[in-house]
């Protein structure tokens, strides 16, 4: 057409590659071996997928050469490809920058640039690389930006590097697929894995991706599922490229039923017939949720997005509902009886649908018939059921009950969303949620330690995202709940670090020191600290915040003048006119 720059907002699986690939191929001059177009993608897997699609689209175009360049593969092989001339380079930003610096990727003749999954590239920290690439191609290029969501970072890139662009929206901005049902199951943190198993058992024909927040959690959940007999694999950045390729190939071929993955690792996996997406905890960004849920319910099929959450994540559900314009169903976990019935019917259905090769089993039928001639039909059925179905019967016979936490009021949810704790005047220690450990940190509001800063500080020192529950912020200290399994790692990561010049102390709130009275404020009649703790607190206050308890009556005048005032060793004036006797008016 008129070669406008374009921003196209569309969910994964809506045919974006064909949308930009077919016009791109039409514009290529195959008589020239100069690079005329580049396509940037966030992951190696997506890079290879786009390359394969473009080669399929252009298989009848003579002298067309397309190269995929990405990290994790031999750069010498890729340089060899580029040296022989390619019209289209499909690349990950990091590897393309490397080739540009080596002078092997020449982009001075590029007329078309495509940014695919732009929001994900920016989330992965490729902002500087994208900027360098875009400044390294001619100004009169045609730029197409494809994204599932329109984040502020995407808008910033669009305004900086796209010219007079048109915006095309498939569906609504940041909206999930219409054919997806959204369900959440609220459980205590300790019961999340048990809940996952029940849901997988309840859907015998499930074909799903289970999304986890971290690489460590991903591997842990996959290992547990495999140990418990499920057909599962893990996919995350710590796996070698060969392992990731094999895992994705097995999943695409339905040889793996459940893939446990991180958001980034699963980005290049394009599967159209997923029955479920399971969120093992909700992501912090609504955009990530729409990415995840958009992987099911494709090609006219219905899909289900399941979220296993604890009560502290309820506010995230409400935020997502507002953003995508769809309501979540508050689900109730299936009972052991319901699960066993589902599995039994599935087992019987498998038996009935089994194809029998008469010729193959004919030599053995006489002996088999003789073995069963003294057993009636009903007993045979019972034995078949027990042998094929015994694992579920044994497990669910004594299965522990999974209690649903009581929902908090909307006021409490909003307070949790803001990261505010309960009133600092609470008389008794606050009991952490089941499965969580309460930690003490010697930083508070007086140090500028607010919810946003708390999360940034923890994530920075944990070198990644850390799940956090309730946060109680006091003036000079804080109490933070983290999953029990992470408590030691968090304490080790924070203790002894510095925050705005202050040395940080972090310990178990239940063990001595400040933690023993974690639910009480530092003042008020309800405070019954031990003598040593009060002494420690006074010493801490005097060291960290210069005492203002002992002023001379004219010291404030000296302070206002900027003159050095003696704040210690002087007695206040308790005369009738003295300042120390006066109380502020109520």
Automatic annotation (TrEMBL):
UniProt cross-references to PROSITE patterns, sorted A to Z: DEAD_ATP_HELICASE, HELICASE_ATP_BIND_1, HELICASE_CTER
Residue intervals of the Helicase C-terminal domain: 198-340
Keyword Disulfide bond included in the entry's annotation: no
Positions of the Helicase ATP-binding domain: 1-168
GO cellular component: cytosol
Biased composition (Basic and acidic residues): 402-423, 505-514, 526-541
Keyword terms of this UniProt record: ATP-binding, Helicase, Hydrolase, Nucleotide-binding
Record-linked InterPro entries: DbpA/CsdA_RNA-bd_dom, DEAD/DEAH_box_helicase_dom, DEAD/DEAH_RhlB, DEAD_box_RNA_helicase, Helicase_ATP-bd, Helicase_C-like, Nucleotide-bd_a/b_plait_sf, P-loop_NTPase
Pfam families: DbpA, DEAD, Helicase_C
CDD domains (UniProt xref): DEADc, RRM_DbpA, SF2_C_DEAD
Keyword check for Plastid: no
Region (Disordered): 402-437, 505-586
GO MF annotations in UniProt: ATP binding; hydrolase activity; nucleic acid binding; RNA helicase activity
Protein family membership: Belongs to the DEAD box helicase family.
Name used for this protein in its record: DEAD/DEAH box helicase
Organism: Prevotella histicola
């Amino acid at each position: 057409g008129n070669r406008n720059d374009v921003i196209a907002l569309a969910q994964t699986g809506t045919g974006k590659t064909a949308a930009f690939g077919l016009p791109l191929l039409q514009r290529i001059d195959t008589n020239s071996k100069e690079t005329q177009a580049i396509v940037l993608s966030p992951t190696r897997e997506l890079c290879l997928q786009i390359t394969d699609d473009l080669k399929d689209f252009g298989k009848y175009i003579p002298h067309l050469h397309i190269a995929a360049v990405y990290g994790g593969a031999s750069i010498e092989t890729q340089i060899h490809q580029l040296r022989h001339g390619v019209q289209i380079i499909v690349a990950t930003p990091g590897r393309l920058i490397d080739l540009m610096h080596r002078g092997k990727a020449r982009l001075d003749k590029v007329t078309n640039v495509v940014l695919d999954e732009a929001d994900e590239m920016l989330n992965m920290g490729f902002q500087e690389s994208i900027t360098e690439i875009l400044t390294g191609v001619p100004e009169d290029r045609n730029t197409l930006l494809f994204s599932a969501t329109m984040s502020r970072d995407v808008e910033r890139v669009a305004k900086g590097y796209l010219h007079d662009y048109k915006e095309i929206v498939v569906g609504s901005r940041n909206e999930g697929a219409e054919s997806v049902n959204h369900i959440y199951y609220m459980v205590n943190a300790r019961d999340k894995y048990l809940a996952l198993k029940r849901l997988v058992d309840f859907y015998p024909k499930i074909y799903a991706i289970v999304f986890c927040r971290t690489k460590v959690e991903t591997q842990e959940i996959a290992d547990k599922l495999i140990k418990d007999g499920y057909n599962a694999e893990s996919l995350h950045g710590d796996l070698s490229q060969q392992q990731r390729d094999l895992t994705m190939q097995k999943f695409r071929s339905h040889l793996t039923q459940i893939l446990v993955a991180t958001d980034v690792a699963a980005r290049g996996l394009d599967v159209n017939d997923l029955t479920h997406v399971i969120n093992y905890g909700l992501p912090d960004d609504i955009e990530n949720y729409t990415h995840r849920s958009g992987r099911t319910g494709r090609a006219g099929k219905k899909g289900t997005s399941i979220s296993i959450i604890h009560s502290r994540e309820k506010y995230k559900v409400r935020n997502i509902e507002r953003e995508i314009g769809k309501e979540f169903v508050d689900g109730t976990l299936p009972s052991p009886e319901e699960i066993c019935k589902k599995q039994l019917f599935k087992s019987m259905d498998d038996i009935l649908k089994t194809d029998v090769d008469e010729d193959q089993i004919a030599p053995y039928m006489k002996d088999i018939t003789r073995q069963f001639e003294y057993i009636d039909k009903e007993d045979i059925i019972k034995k078949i059921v027990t042998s094929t179905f015994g694992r579920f019967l044994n497990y669910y016979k004594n299965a522990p009950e999974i209690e649903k936490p009581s929902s908090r009021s909307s006021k409490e949810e909003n307070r949790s969303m803001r990261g505010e704790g309960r009133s600092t005047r609470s008389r008794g220690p606050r009991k952490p949620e089941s499965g969580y450990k309460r930690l003490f940190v010697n930083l508070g509001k007086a140090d500028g330690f607010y919810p946003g800063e708390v999360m940034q500080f923890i994530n920075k020192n944990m070198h990644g995202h850390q799940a956090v529950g309730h946060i109680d912020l006091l003036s000079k200290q804080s109490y933070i709940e983290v999953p029990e399994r992470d408590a030691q790692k968090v304490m080790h990561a924070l203790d002894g670090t510095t925050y705005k010049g202050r040395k940080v102390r972090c310990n178990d709130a239940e063990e001595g020191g400040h933690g023993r009275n974690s639910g009480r404020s530092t003042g008020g009649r309800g405070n019954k600290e031990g003598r040593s703790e009060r002494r420690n607190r006074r010493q801490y206050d005097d060291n960290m915040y210069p005492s203002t308890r002992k002023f001379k009556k004219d010291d404030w005048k000296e302070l206002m003048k900027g003159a050095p005032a003696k704040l210690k060793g002087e007695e206040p004036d308790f005369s009738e006119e003295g300042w120390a006797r006066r109380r502020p008016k109520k």
